[in-house]
Write a structure and sequence with these properties.
The protein has 293 residues and is an alpha/beta fold. Helices cover 38% and strands 24% of the residues. α1 crosses α2 and α2 packs across α3.
């Protein structure tokens, strides 16, 4: 199966248009049509309806395979390029919003001393996207965070031969509006709060699905969704009574109008891990050693 044809098929299906796909890919519309026809000949069935443009039943099934296949091809290309490429003075670190800490600042200062000409970029991205960005070489390495049992690794998608190392584990707390009946408690069980109003903030805090899985209790229905990456915005909604959120306890220190109730059950921590592929000697390899040590 030709990966170029497969990528063209995915683009046509996503855009619902041969002409729009041709424009995005830089092909003529005739070339796009020829690639789709060749792919359909290869698999022995029609993959797209033409009027309107959309996947057939077989096309929909192929789309389920196409994303992971193309991702692994991109990851393989990036991994080989890292191994054989010349040392780079560029360093692009991807990080989830709450994974940035004092240790990172100190480590980056050490990297700058060792590589004064390093072209440094810190890119804050939703945690779900980070492993893919590392695998495909869009970032050199990444700090990913999330809920975990103490000393347990984070569950990460299989997007390529990536390595992980623990960087930090911090206690968790439920963010409550000041004056909430649980404010001031020395500890709470998350299961006891399953019927409360929750804020779903997938870029920052554990989602309702993750809380249900962690507690084995139904509930945790979101009262509102917060799709930003700024924890201050999320805490402002908590303070205004729009819902609760589970965050690293340190993130709640000094937040106006917000109280913290430490999570005592289940036994969970806010874990941060460094994710990277092969790292030839250079700024990224040094940063990995500093953060992983």
């Amino acid at each position: 199966m030709d990966p170029h044809q497969l990528r063209t098929f995915v683009t046509v299906a996503r855009l619902g248009s041969f002409s729009e796909a041709a424009r995005e890919l830089g092909y003529t519309q005739s070339a796009v049509s020829q690639q789709i026809a060749a792919l359909e000949s290869d698999v022995g069935t029609s993959l797209l309806t033409r009027r309107p443009v959309g996947p057939t039943e077989a096309g929909a099934r192929l789309l389920e395979h196409a994303g992971p296949l193309l991702l692994r091809l991109d990851a393989a290309r990036a991994d080989v390029a890292r191994l054989v490429g010349a040392p780079s003075a560029r360093l692009v670190l991807g990080t989830a919003p709450l994974a940035v800490g004092a240790a990172l600042g100190s480590a980056l200062a050490e990297v700058r001393r060792a590589y004064p000409r390093v072209d440094l970029t810190v890119r804050v991205v939703a945690r779900e996207a980070l492993p893919t960005l590392v695998a495909t070489g869009e970032v050199d390495l990444a700090l990913v965070d999330g809920l975990a049992a103490p000393s347990d690794p984070l569950p990460l998608p299989d997007v390529g031969p990536l390595s992980t190392v623990a960087v930090d584990e911090r206690p968790l707390a439920v963010a409550l509006p000041a004056g909430h009946p649980l404010a001031g408690r020395r500890g709470v069980a998350l299961a006891d709060l399953s019927a409360a109003r929750w804020l779903d903030a997938p870029g920052i805090a554990p989602t309702a699905d993750r809380l249900r899985a962690a507690t084995a209790v139904d509930g945790f229905r979101p009262a509102a969704r917060y799709l930003g990456g700024d924890v201050r915005g999320l805490l402002a909604l908590v303070a205004a009574g729009h819902g609760l959120a589970v965050l690293p306890a340190a993130a709640l220190d000094g937040a106006p109008g917000v109280a913290a109730a430490p999570v005592r059950a289940p036994r969970l921590v806010h874990r941060t891990e460094l994710v990277h592929g092969s790292l030839p000697e250079g700024p990224a390899a040094l940063l990995a050693r500093l953060l992983g040590g």
